[in-house]
């Protein structure tokens, strides 16, 4: 039976550890502060499944951890990996994947699993909604809302915001994408036509990981608008321009970990078990 | 032209003051700390419309204020009121209303205005949703949700939660109420049948200002459930029982003031102008 | 045990008869053509519960029947009624109710039962939607829709049309009614302001039993619009004016009987049993 | 300026002809009965854009026409085509496309245009809803509904049915597809697990063009259920088995042409203009 070592991360790791334990798995969790008695080497000798955090790393040196931890260097981790291990994590750097491949170590990136990605859009959407309600002094109800992009996150977010009675417009690059958005009940606009229209929105959600809402567009946004950016850092909004013009704007990252760590952990748990069942 | 004096309250008073000013009205705002130069007597001689907070008072002695203020005693206020004044506020005590009536002072309670009450259900619903997303480590999506009561707040909240893909059940006392809930697309249950079913809900929102979710029912609630009580204090949930059983539960009051002070101020502004136009 | 006699009506009577039989009740159905062997006198001696149709009568002489029937004169029916009978029907004429009261005959009008009325709004709404889809050569999707009135039928219809992605505006007389409509996510307009706006709607549903869409308003309606009137006959639309101007318009009555006779029969069955259980 | 010849088809051709005329184009419509004065040869010499129907043909000999027409043989059409012509139609046979390619005749199949396909899902969904309301004696409201497949048509239909308060389950082959369906708020089931569950649905909509609901599954369907098949002929339901078991079932094809010919014509018009603008 598999033995799991969970390293670093945020509260999702806690919930994941709890779920694994509840399901009868031997589990070691090392995610909160430095434990002088903890030995990564020993833990990795005991456990065969290494569950790294989402994201794998932020500084490219150590595994990411919400709490300060000094003993999670990536090099150290790699040095203890053997072909008996299977590694999981989110946004695993290319060189780590390459290392695993060469050394015949199983390596799964959560972000490459379509199931996980799709399911995570829900927690992201709910988190973005909570952020918008809190950040803005107005109501979402019957306000005008722009969503840039129409990928998975945007679709789920758009449906939920429609369910809250916002009038949604989807801005996209491609006609087919916009035809689909229209069939799902949304107004649509080409990204290239945004300049003319962006001033009329009360809420703007960006989901495109590229500078879409640049300084020029920001200068046309209503002073009463609220901008939430849920695209990967550094996001797609010129936040400096927003600050200068007094527009409420926030880069909201890692929403599933903040607003729905338990659901996120369940999703990871199911994905891990599916991978392991297909591996062995 | 009317001159407005705003006393105490929360950030709704700030936004209300700003809206009045933007619309060209002379406005005095006294809501933030003690201003040694402020004289209630003088301000009330200058202004004819006195906008008191929501709620009017919490301690029955002074006007309510989010910031500590020592110069807003109700007795003091009354002593300066003349028949040239018109008084507004939320949940104005009966004796103040009676005093106004006897002295021919115009007196309007926001809570008696059906328009205001209905419009406020929106901010309350959005606030309750934000609280639920934040309080619970899971997702609202496709979870099982119970709403006790089917008055105005419950109706708006239920529609919005349905828009977020929760499976909603309405618990009420009357068959007609439940027939209406069913026609609006919700499952229904008699309050008296809750014991058998309450264990299967992930989220419970109480809107009834009476002890509906008592200790007995709390003992049957799932340990993973989240309870949000938006009925007037002291609410309708046995919070002590929740604490003992480790169930997440929160009395969430004054949600419009917290989550949508600007929209709330606009609603008050419109109601005030309607009243004044019908008065004179 | 009760014995049921069903007279006249439409296919709801057939389904009602079937449901009663399935539940073990003795049932006589007389609703389809003239049966030379049928004797109303004998049937009413055998059965104690007389289930008349919805509506009770159209010509004020005989019970309503979808099929031509010559033996259902109201006078004849009354002459056989005794205090051992209990009478049910929809829109029972006042003089029949008065006759029943004086002779101590139980008499229940479905239309006076709030439960039945509320539940029937669903079949009415679905029927109106089917009529609109069929009558118009365009799509409902993302079209502009006006609903006049905001009573029970209008509320259910509005929610369902919103669910089909129409942009709904509610026209009503009272501000409170419109505040409620707004809180439920609809645009609103005062009936008295309709002249300015009525030209922009693709679909118009009238639910008010009074001449609301008169010749003047019809002249302002778009030539491409579709009007469905679900208010009681003669409805609230000037159909002659519509005809002259080539505007698609239809008075759609009795929708539950046409589109959902089985569900309607179930609703009646439950209402009948509730009444009988409370009577004896 | 282009001159348009419209041949055969259903009422979409009429609306398309009207829209072209309204937009100032020279248009010849030949779609209703035999006109002894009509000469295909002459018409094709006058017009350069030939708008064939959807579908192009049903009998593989003549163009499809809702009205009996004897002069629309495909061979005849081809014999008059020159490289100056551009041909449009729906489901154009491969050999016609090949003929066009070889002879350098522009040839566009509406069914290959993603825009058109996506937009048509709306009329298909609305038509399927109207069929279900009419076919079943019950209400859609709060009934249990199964949709097989989760392609474009199924997505649009599922969202609309959810908007009408049905409890939707999506049956599909692939886990990712079902994860997406779940994120959009639907229950899900693997097609391979249908046997256990199919008995509990009140409405079944098939969108998969393959025998999905075979005799075995039909035998497990509730006798009160209603089945609507909107997959291309011969559909994916064993209709003979349905007939034998007295289950309401209908193959509903060409719904856009029946329920929304005007909207469908507008979609075609826009697609034609886009193609022509990109061609020349």
TrEMBL record, chains A, B, C, D:
Matching InterPro entries: DpaA_N, NAD(P)-bd_dom_sf
A Pfam family (short name) is DpaA_N
Name all Dipicolinate synthase subunit A N-terminal domain ranges.
4-111
Instruction: Tell me the SUPFAM superfamilies matching this sequence.
Output: NAD(P)-binding Rossmann-fold domains
> Highest taxon of the source?
Bacteria
List the protein's name: Dipicolinate synthase subunit DpsA
